[in-house]
Amino acid sequence: MIEKLEEIFAQFEQKVGGLTNQADILNLKSEFIGKKGLISEVLKSLKDATPEQRKAIGPKANDIKNNITDMVAAKLTAIEAQEINEKLASSRIDISLTDDVKEGSSLGGGFHPRTLIQREIEDIFLSMGFDILDGPHIEDEFHNFEALNIPSDHPARDMQDTFWFHDPNAQSDEKKFLLRTHTSTIQVRGMRSRKPPFKFIAPGTVFRCERTDASHEMVFNQLEGMMVGEDISVSHLIYFMKTILKEIFKKDVEVRLRPGFFPFVEPGFELDIKCLICSGNGCSVCKQVGWVELLPCGMVHPNVLKAGGIDSEKYNGFAFGLGLDRLVMMKYGIDDIRHLQSGDLRFNTQFKTF
Ligand code: FA5
């Protein structure tokens, strides 16, 4: 077992050396020392070891975990330092700036509330062994629609008003491009780049040609989630949905689950939250109904698994698409989504500064 642990550590050392991206490094850390990481897997067989063997294996495993934690911290610090140095090398100092722009003044920097919530959610999912993925804003029809069980003549295409790129010289059968209307595009990219079982989240900006109001923007943010494996059930889905809400709100919030239609899931659900702006009494955010659509989800449709190259006879899974801006509104009591990207300093400076 000691040899196995050393082998795992050697693998880690080899892999971490080539990484330059912070998310990849954190993913690697959880792959090795996360709750379901390689080290924990090895330690499962500790129960069969003799007391002497256990005495040697326990400290060895701890040493390796500490080494991995230290190496990850050192690597992240080095990347940050490199980024700062690159920025410093390429930026120009404006010596005409007056000294009222200083730490603690109203113009001091700060994190956008969406960044705060997104980071919190990423930490929660990383700790549960999920990867974090990204995808392009400009997409093709295949990833945005076809692979998600929405062929060109399907009425569900009208559910999301799409910004298309128009190429006047394009032939009729050429690939058409668009601004992605949802983060579900990353489902297909994620499935095609890994083998089951896997689980990932994918936060990102999406675009719809919609009329704006207190709870609708044309450019907004979602956070996709997907878990694929054997025997995944609706109760796994509900467990993860409840975990996110409990961790984010740190208190019980009222939710309701109702049937929802999305061609890429079957069955599909809408998870609504009791509006925290008006306590469910009715306001412009919840359109006077007292509930806000927040977290649609469902069991992945077999056609989508097939489009992702996955054997739908053997594997199944769930997916969800969290409305990130609406979650931020509920968390901080923001009564109009348009404040979020207004750039108004009176709004922005209410949140945590660094
Ligand atoms: C979708 O976009 C699906 N892709 C979600 C999904 C993923 C379902 C996986 C099942 C499985 P919908 O159009 O309802 O679904 O958008 C998801 C969430 O984004 C909504 O619940 C809402 O919280 C948020 N949202 C939708 N439109 C807007 C908008 N215009 N402005 C702000 N938030 C929006």
UniProtKB/TrEMBL annotation:
Reaction(s) catalysed by this chain's protein: tRNA(Phe) + L-phenylalanine + ATP = L-phenylalanyl-tRNA(Phe) + AMP + diphosphate + H(+)
GO molecular function terms listed in the Swiss-Prot or TrEMBL record: ATP binding; magnesium ion binding; phenylalanine-tRNA ligase activity; tRNA binding
Listed GO biological process terms: phenylalanyl-tRNA aminoacylation
One cellular component term from this protein's GO annotations in UniProt: cytoplasm
CDD domains per UniProt: PheRS_alpha_core (cd00496)
Cofactor(s) in the UniProt record: Mg(2+)
Binding positions (Mg(2+)): 266
Cofactor binding notes: Binds 2 magnesium ions per tetramer.
Primary localization class, coarse: cytoplasm
Localization terms from the record: Cytoplasm
Every Aminoacyl-transfer RNA synthetases class-II family profile domain range: 110-330
EC number: 6.1.1.20
UniProt keyword terms in alphabetical order: Aminoacyl-tRNA synthetase, ATP-binding, Cytoplasm, Ligase, Magnesium, Metal-binding, Nucleotide-binding, Protein biosynthesis
InterPro entries, per the entry: aa-tRNA-synth_II, aa-tRNA-synth_II/BPL/LPL, Phe-tRNA-synth_IIc_asu, Phe-tRNA_ligase_II_N, Phe_tRNA_ligase_alpha1_bac, Phenylalanyl-tRNA_Synthase, tRNA-bd_arm
Assembly with partners or alone: Tetramer of two alpha and two beta subunits.
Record-stated family: Belongs to the class-II aminoacyl-tRNA synthetase family. Phe-tRNA synthetase alpha subunit type 1 subfamily.
PANTHER family per record: PHENYLALANINE--TRNA LIGASE, MITOCHONDRIAL, PHENYLALANYL-TRNA SYNTHETASE
Protein name: Phenylalanine--tRNA ligase alpha subunit
Organism: Halobacteriovorax marinus (strain ATCC BAA-682 / DSM 15412 / SJ) (Bacteriovorax marinus)
Gene: pheS
